[in-house]
Structures are given as structure tokens and as C-alpha cells.
Amino acid sequence: MSSDTRWLSTEESAAWVRLVALTELLPNALDAQLLRDAGLTHFEYGALMALAGAPERTMVMTELASRTNATLPRLSHVARRLEERGLIERSPCRTDRRATNARVTEAGLDLIDQAAPGHVDTVRANVLDLLTEEQIGQLYQIAGAVLAKLDPEERLAATSCQFSEGPAVARAG
Amino acid sequence: MSSDTRWLSTEESAAWVRLVALTELLPNALDAQLLRDAGLTHFEYGALMALAGAPERTMVMTELASRTNATLPRLSHVARRLEERGLIERSPCRTDRRATNARVTEAGLDLIDQAAPGHVDTVRANVLDLLTEEQIGQLYQIAGAVLAKLDPEERLAATSCQFSEGPAVARAG
DNA sequence: CCGCATTGGTTGACGCTACAACTGATTGCC
DNA sequence: GGCAATCAGTTGTAGCGTCAACCAATGCGG
Predict the structure, then answer these.
(1) CA distance B75 to B69
(2) CA A48, C1' C23: Å apart?
(3) Chain centre distance of CA A54
(4) For residue B38, which of A108, A109, A120, A142 sits 20 to 30 Å off, Cα-Cα?
(5) Structure confidence at residue A160 (pLDDT)
């Protein structure tokens, strides 16, 4: 117990307290809006978006779990509920009979298309529109530095949300 | 549905995706360390710290709930568990017989004193030490701008964590 | 001082997530 | 080929948070 802890300076402490407050409040705000307007949690929304952006609108469960930072049991439960609602379908994978493919249905695509505008509005209203262009760049850098530690393989980086214009994905057969 | 949604630019989207990833991963990291080393969730730690920093090491439940961004039922459940573990005590308030005072016990103070160094290490290792001094200032500003929207009354601002040196609080009777 | 809305707090039921245990398929190794 | 280890996924259980219902105390208007 060599008590050589480097305690936080005033500036560090102030920034940390605010970051903690942000990580507590922001997820609630996102969930509240999506739940109210589309009956989806932010996690479910992210999962559907990830599938929508994938080739064939399909992903193996393990891959999807990794991209959405979910444990496999969690994703399995969520997938069951989404399937019961007709938003995704699950089918056995042809090449690896252990694996399960999850695919967004048309209804799922419709739902996220319908939910996207409200969600983007929320993101703007609560975060992006409150920051200058410069601050958005700073945020990118700061979060990037932290994620290099927390998510070194960049599992979450490539994912979650396309916010491009138009429908979430081309509905090619 | 005038489809006049302002979609996100590439820069905005990139920053947003990273912020979301951060808000998903950071709480897990904090909980994991505290749970492993002290058997406390980050929320419980924050509540104990808030009490430790209060006059008489005591707060009314409602006040504590507000400061820790908890609903009253949530805090009530948590308080019951903390009380069962001997980390806090609850007693009726003298001036308002509806109210309940929560107070950290000596054992509670001991626990957070013991947990603090490891927690600060985690905060440094996962966030602060990965940023430049300048970035810490930027983070303070950015989070501040967002919190002005999400927490306009600054309920969480004044709270949660003192990371000053030495024991969490003077143990004056 | 009485009636009623409001506030402080607790409790119980339900939903979601983590964890452990398990099945079935696959890979590696001899 | 066969056995062990690993991997993909599901299921059950327990813990935590939310919501609704509830009780007790307060305060306010008449």
C-alpha cells in the first residue's frame, strides 16, 4: 500500500465528473426517445442498423454481438424478442452449422427508416448542435484516444449507425 | 413528414459513433474494476462518496437521489442493500417526518477510502492519462455544453466524486 | 381546522442483462 | 478415425432498475 496514488487535479476532476454525468444521462435520453417513438431501445436500434448495413442485411450472431458490444446471451435474448416482433429472422448458417444468421426483415427496415429522423433529431438536439465544428473534431479525437484503450480492436468503430441520407439500405432482393 | 431531417455529415457521424461507443464501454469498465476490488458498483461508490462529502456525512434520500441521478425507488433499493452491508444507516428526519436521512458509516468510509486509489488508477488508465492537458480542457467544455441541455439544473455537477488527496472525509464525530 | 393535493419514501412486479450450465458442431492432434 | 478442446448459440437463474401502487406526512386554501 505505498499510497503513491496520483490524485486528480482540479481540472482533471472537473472534466471527469462531467464525463461521468454525461455517460449516465445520455443513454437514458437516447433510450427514452427511441422507446417512445419506435418501441426500440437504443441497443435494439443499433443492432437493426448494423444488420441493415451488412451485406444481405445479414450477420452471424457472434459477429453482430461483437459489433454491438453485446455478450452472446444478451444478443440471443434480444434476437428472440426482435424475431417475435417480426423485425428480424434467424436461420441456420449453411457453411457452419453451429452458426445462426440474423437478417433484418422488411418490417425491420421500415421501422428503422421511420425511427431514424427522430433519432437524428435527438442526437442533434442533445449533442451535435450544441457543439462547434471545432469541438466536434475535438470530441472525435478525445473519444478516439479513449477507445484505443477500451476497444483496441475497434469492434464498435465501424458500426452501429449509418446516418446517411435516404432509407437505411437499398432493398435489393 | 416533410423529410427535412438534417442528416449527419461524415465528421458528425464519426464523432457520434465514437461517443456512443464510449458511453457503452466506459461504465462497464468502471463497474468491473470497482466490483472486483471493492464489491461496489460505480453507482454505489458515487452514492457513498456523495454522502461522505456531505455535512454530517448525511443526506436526505431525495437529495441524494437527485445528486446521483437516481429515481427514488432505485435509491431506496440500493440504500436497503448498502444498509444490510453496514455501509450506511438510515434514520427518520427530525424536522420532516416523511423524510429519511442516509448516513455513511465508518465501515462505509473505510471501504471507499480503500477503493479510491484503485478507482483513480482506473480513471487515469482509461481516460485522463490518455489525453493531453489541452484535451482535458476541451472535454470539460464539450461535456459542459451537453450537460447544459441534459442536466440544466446541474444536479450532477457538484457531486459524485471528490478525488482530492487523503481520506474521503474528516471523521469528525 | 378540515379537505385535498403534493411530497418523501417504500414495496412488489416486471423487463433486461450478466453469468453459468448445457447442447451440438467444428477443429486440432495423435 | 477418434478423442479433446474449442466454438456458436440457447436456456435458466439471479441481480438490478423502472414503473405503478401504495402509505404517511405536510401544507395550503377555504
Answers:
(1) 9
(2) 28
(3) 14
(4) A142
(5) 47
